[in-house]
Amino acid sequence: MSLRFVWGVVVFLVIVSAIPPFSLHLIDSGGGFPGPVEANPSNYRIIVPKCQCGATYRSLCLTHPHLRGHDVAELQERLLTLGFFEGKVDGIFGISTDSAVREFQKAVNMEPTGLVTDLVWLRMGTGPSRTLPAIADLPPGERRIVVDVNTLVLTFYVGDEIIKRYPIAIGKWHTPTPVGEFVIIDKDYAPGGAFGTRWMGLNVPWGGYGIHGTNKPWSIGSAASAGCIRMLNEDVEELFELAPIKTRVEIIGEEPKGDITRNLRMGDTGHDVQVLQYYLRRGAFDTGPLDGRFGPRVDAAVREMQKLYGFPPTGRVGLNELYLLGLR
Amino acid sequence: MRKKALKVAFMVLVTLLSGIAIFTIVVFNRPELIPPGPYHPRALLSELLGYHVHPWVRIDPTKQYTLKVWSTRWPIFQDGYGYDDLIEEVIEDFQKIYPNVSVEYVLLPLGEIEEAIEKAVDNSTPPNICMAPFDPSLVESGLVVPINMFICDKPRKDIRATPATDFELSSLGFVSLANRIWAWPSWMAVKCWAGNAEVLREAGIDVERVMLYGWTYEDILSMVDALRIRQAGVEEQYRTYGLVLDTTSTNTLDTLMEAAGRGLVLSPDGSLMWQGDTLKSSLSFLQRIRLEKGFPEPAHMMSERMLELFWTGRAAVIGPVGPGFLRHVRERHEKMSGNHLAGGAEAVEPILLPVPHPVGGTSSACVTLNAAVVFTCPGTSGADTAYLAVRLAEALARKEALWLAGELSVVPARYEDRPHTFSLTPVPDGATRRFLAEAVASGRMFRNLSSATKEKERFLREHVISPMMTEFWQGTISPDEFDRRLSAVTSLSGFE
Lengths: 328, 496
Known about the structure:
CATH topology of the largest domain in chain B: D-Maltodextrin-Binding Protein, domain 2
Strand content of chain A: 15-25%
Number of helices of chain B: 17
Order of helices and strands of chain A: HHHHHEEEEEEEEHEHHH
Strand content of chain B: 5-15%
CATH architecture of the largest domain in chain B: 3-Layer(aba) Sandwich
Helix content of chain B: 40-55%
Number of strands of chain B: 15
Largest interface: A-B, 25 and 34 residues
Largest sheet of chain A: 8 strands, mixed, barrel
Shape of chain B: elongated
Radius of gyration of chain B: 27 Å
Strand order of the largest sheet of chain A: 1-2-3-8-6-5-4-9
Largest sheet of chain B: 9 strands, mixed
Helix content of chain A: 25-40%
Oligomer: heterodimer
Distance between the termini of chain B: 74 Å
CATH class of the largest domain in chain B: Alpha Beta
């Protein structure tokens, strides 16, 4: 009995030790606020939490139970466009999807494994051609990026001069690209997979969002990502060289929506802080960038509003302040 | 010989008397007969009276002047037209008359200008013009320029001077000390409370009468009592409260003491004003309302729900409110009419109300005055620069008042600017306009006259009265104890 128990413990320990340790990269993918990062100028490789787009970087195949997700739906949409898939785009990797993948693989002289890898993704797309001129020497001035989620264009500015415009893909309606004003806080030279050839992380407080390349170039020009700004690899490679860390990135689009359901004060972060910043700005109070961070500038703006309307300048946002902003 | 000497003496006398007569005529009746300049009799007279900055100061057209202006960055825009646009416009107009004057202006965050100007005056580095709430204690620095010579009794032909009758009399009174006028009055704001007219009427209050003649503590207590009776059996979460007051700092007590005629904690000689029956009656009034369940509980946190209870029709009176309250009302009404408010809103009829006063006292509003003060900067500017500053300050004071009165419930100090601004103001009805006009005409302004007393008063408010008010709202200190402790602190030898 005791021998069997010892044997059981040994087997258990062997199994546990065989499980590869999860890296933060996987566990935190798409959530949480990026912590302090260490710069490594030799190859820009910095491990930071990534956006949900990383979740698309998984090999797809027929399994039981069937794989589900927006990456499967994206695959189905592409196969539908290419004429290999005739079923319903439901995001479920079923038998019809498997058949379509195999048909496609045969058509492009690949082994019909039914396994959708990076290579398969790349063979499925050509991507829109670049029609914009190459960049000459940059004039002096502040470099900044403006992303318009309505026109699906990323514009790179130096000062007020437009240097170049790039087509992009943005988040789907249920995983929208965050609107606001952020900065690039980290860069990754070769993230691979769904991130393409470059990654530039943004300081969005409520998730790991960034500007990156893609392995699905045909998706550029559509709302296809999990919230990140997706670019063609050749474009993101160019932008990567132009935009250093701390470059301002203004993402313009629909006004931040949502309710503020908690009292806010200095140090708070989140989408509700961004909503607050947006409404303060609409009331002519200067909050700085719409970055979802309740910092000293937001604090000063709240106090200014309280003073203007004759309320004690506490810097805290409670019910009175929501009424003043018209949010109640 | 003697006859000849007498004749000469007579001639001298006649000449002298004629000279005096001509001088008198010129000075008091026809000053325009002599061209303006530093040797104009009136200029000499002004110098003699101690006014070194007067309308006859000569401006050198070849000299380059620079004026520094400090004001507040008002976070208000009218169709994209902001406060800095207003200042630019005034400067542009000024430079059409004085092209050799450049103006540098600094706009400080709202509410920070008073402290900034105090420090600048302490360091003898004030700007030439400061647009701020008028602080009489700055006068003792000797850096403030009196502007009496620029204000006249009736319109003048010889020089540009503004008739005193253009101004609300009280506003000139607020900026006058020792028979000198120390600033251009710009606009006045009334410290008041606000109410829901409908709820007040239901509780038996004659709203229009209160707005005109004021009300007493007893009137409020009757209103609270009437509300309590009307709401017998109503659950707590649906109750309407008589008062929802600001429990932070000393704000509520300030207004009550001002209405009782004791706006300052300390008198000019440093003795305690907030003591005895006046203080105890104000605090007892608040305590009685609490006992009558006129406040939402917990009372010490009621200010956090002030607007919620007001806009849901569950507060009869809120206070104190500043000049921005009616702006908030207007914005909310605009949103309501455009259906831009999530969840809709109940119709509330907001009105401004005077602060109640003790029984037996008289109603008197407390006002604050914003003014344009001109400073001389020792060693760097002369009378000519100060003259230009006075001229620019007058234009700024007037323009600011006109502009702000269109956005906030403030009253321009000049009569002729009122009809125009009242047409722009968010002031909703005639009664409120009348209330504001009456309040600024008969109201009082409480400011410390010396910087030493001001410092002591500030210390008392922040470190003694404010913590005691927190205890009071929490119900752990009685009015008697409050009075006793405050008197004890001020009687300490170290305090003096």
